[in-house]
Write a structure and sequence with these properties.
Elements: E1 2-5, E2 7-10, E3 13-21, H1 38-62, H2 71-81, H3 84-97, H4 101-116, H5 122-143, E4 158-162, H6 167-171, E5 178-183, H7 191-199, E6 203-205, E7 219-223, E8 228-231, H8 235-257, E9 272-277, H9 283-288, E10 294-297, H10 301-304, H11 312-326, E11 331-334, H12 361-367, H13 369-382, E12 388-392, H14 398-417, E13 427-432, H15 435-439, H16 441-444, E14 450-453, H17 455-463, H18 481-496, E15 500-503, H19 514-520, E16 524-528, H20 532-540, H21 544-555, H22 560-574, H23 579-587
Parallel strand pairs: 3-4, 4-5, 5-6, 9-10, 9-16, 10-11, 11-12, 12-13, 13-14, 14-15, 15-16
Antiparallel strand pairs: 1-8, 2-6, 3-7, 7-8
Helix pairs in contact: 1-2, 1-3, 1-5, 2-5, 3-4, 4-5, 11-13, 13-14, 19-21
């Protein structure tokens, strides 16, 4: 028996036989071509792209109704086929280097990989995987081979083990035949992981060499709660995990059954619990898991997957769909948080020595006013179709908000003169994610209707820690006394000025932190939809006054270690043990 650890991509326990998928390796044929053959090769390349487009469109049309909402992922792949970094670049290389289409595609992909290697944002990095799927499809078409994994021979419930699964492969999975899956590549933010969570299939990803460590027909256990895979489990392990599987299913039924109950403490403190999302296909998960709206709708995806900048009408159409499908719940749309290490393929950004401290988010938008105006117009137009709120990222002081509000007022006047409907009373919010925003929160609160604390960047900038740098990421500590004081300062400043204060960073969805955030007096928590039922359950078991006393105690401590020990002690004492909290505390999930 061997126990392996990787990334928990989709929760649940799966026990079954391995179905090993060995995808065919596409060998790139590299050929120089004569100048007179260049037009013919370019035409061959274009025909291959058209055929893949047709295949993806056909696949979209064949999707069963219950997973139709996931078609946007495949639509984004169609857009990537024509992306200038893939399509235009390959045609250019065929012509200038006089090479065949397969080789041109490989050269183009090498350049894309080099560009993405410097990007720190995990969600943006994962889009490289999507581009890779698209490029491989075209290469296979040029080579006359098939890339889709053959699942037709599955005749009993199995656990798929593969190097990788594309979103298209995942959409073909039958829940009756596939108990779970394990892949060597991928992360929690990959489209394949998102689809697995939506379909309710336990999954572990990012497990190196798993395809060489097991054979088809062997027994395997996938623990999507802890990110563990047990190869050839013994009888004791099978009994233990069978019991855990039963308990987890019962637990999830209970939690999801209560997920639509209000998030209210035993002493009557009411807090809103909302979802963070970035893809339309996440809406069913958001609704099913009891979200009271969307507290953070990230808008970068349309800019990452389009060959050209999305038009105002394209943005409006996308925002309107989200708003209408979630009505009557509110949707908080964050304006473009791009620039620096978050490069869109459609936007030319100058290379910066320190991109994290450079032209990004609200600074980038105020620098690129044409792009910003198009997005603001689209969001305002969408506000006519539901409860829309505007959220501006990385605001560091009042002057930025003065500029933003002036521009917003001009756009409102334009839309009014054009006879376009919108909500002139739309609420505007500020993301608190840099130290100066905390220190001037009392000033900023007079310029906004609400705050949303973005702990991911706030912690990083406050502690001077690059959280993706392996040498220092262990110092990234949400329970640092300085971080807790900044959160409390922000909440107090906002409340003194009469505005609501929420949190949309990763801290909001971690069980151990929930009592602390309740004690801080936050009005709203926004998180990954999967975390909502658990968070609501903890809130409903909490006494807010007790949590407030805990916070007073923690704010007087002088080290993160002290804070963490006391927080764990409080959690163990005040909350009945269940599967997720036991695993959470034992393995330190989220306690960074």
């Amino acid at each position: 028996m061997e126990i392996l650890k990787a990334i928990a991509a989709s929760p649940g326990i799966a026990i079954g036989k391995v179905f090993l998928l060995n995808a065919k390796r596409i060998k790139t044929i590299k050929k120089k071509i004569a100048p007179e053959d260049v037009p013919r090769e370019k035409e061959r390349f274009e025909r291959a792209v058209c055929r893949i487009e047709d295949q993806l469109k056909q696949l979209i049309s064949e999707l069963p109704e219950e997973i139709k909402e996931h078609s946007n992922i495949l639509k984004s792949h169609i857009l990537m086929l024509r992306d200038k970094m893939v399509y235009d670049k390959s045609l250019h290389l065929i012509e200038t280097r006089q090479v065949n289409g397969e080789w041109a595609l490989e050269l183009a992909m090498d350049e894309i990989k080099a560009l993405f290697s410097s990007i720190k944002d995990s969600y943006i990095r994962e889009r490289l995987e999507d581009i890779g799927f698209v490029v491989n499809k075209v290469k296979a078409e040029l080579a006359g081979t098939e890339t889709r994994l053959d699942l037709s021979s599955i005749d009993e419930p199995v656990i798929i083990v593969a190097r990788n699964l594309s979103p298209a492969d995942t959409l073909h999975i039958s829940k009756e035949k596939v108990l779970g899956f394990v892949t060597e590549l991928g992360s929690r933010t990959s489209h394949t992981a998102i689809l697995a969570r939506s379909l309710g299939i336990p999954a572990v990803v990012g497990l190196d060499d798993i395809t060489s460590k097991c054979l088809s027909g062997e027994m395997i256990i996938v623990d999507g709660l802890l990110g563990q895979v047990v190869v050839e489990p013994d009888q004791e392990a099978l009994r233990e995990y069978s019991l855990k599987q039963e308990k987890y299913l019962a637990y999830r039924l209970e939690v999801i059954h209560n997920s639509n109950l209000p998030a209210e403490t035993t002493d009557g403190y009411r807090i809103k619990v909302k979802a963070n999302m970035e893809l339309v296909e996440e809406i069913p998960i958001v609704i099913q898991h009891g979200a009271e709206g969307v507290g953070l709708f990230r808008t970068e995806f349309l800019y990452m997957t389009s060959k050209t900048l999305p038009t105002e009408d394209q943005l409006f159409s996308a925002y309107r769909e989200v708003v209408e499908r979630l009505k009557p719940y509110p949707v908080t749309i964050r304006t473009l948080d791009i620039g620096g290490d978050k490069l869109a393929t459609t936007i030319c950004c100058e290379e910066e020595i320190n991109p994290a401290l450079g032209l990004r988010a609200i600074r980038f938008c105020l620098h690129e006013k044409g792009l910003f105006r198009a997005q603001l117009r689209a969001i305002l137009r969408a506000s006519a179709f539901g409860d829309v709120r505007l959220l501006f990222p990385m605001v560091s002081g009042k002057s930025e908000m003065v500029q933003v509000k002036r521009l917003l007022g001009q756009i409102m006047d334009e839309l009014e003169s054009e006879g376009k409907d919108f909500n002139r009373q739309i609420k505007i919010g500020i993301m608190i994610e840099v130290p100066t925003a905390v220190l001037t929160a009392d000033i900023l609160a007079r310029e906004a209707d609400f705050f949303s604390i973005g702990t991911n960047d706030l912690i990083q900038y406050s502690l001077a820690i690059d959280r993706v740098n392996e040498a220092v990421c262990h110092l990234y500590e949400p329970l640092h006394p300085g971080v807790l004081r900044m959160i409390k300062m922000t909440v107090d400043s906002g409340h003194r000025e009469g505005i609501e204060v929420g949190m949309c960073g990763e801290m909001a969805g971690e069980p151990l932190y929930v009592p602390i955030l309740l004690g801080m007096g936050l009005d709203e928590l926004s998180m990954n939809a999967m975390a909502i039922p658990k968070t609501k359950k903890i809130i409903r078991q909490s006494d807010q006054e007790e949590c407030s006393r805990l916070v007073s105690e923690l704010l007087g401590m002088d080290s993160a270690t002290q804070v963490k020990e006391r927080a764990i002690e409080f959690f163990r004492t005040h909350y009945p043990p269940d599967m997720e909290t036991t695993d959470f505390l034992e393995f330190g999930q989220g306690i960074r």
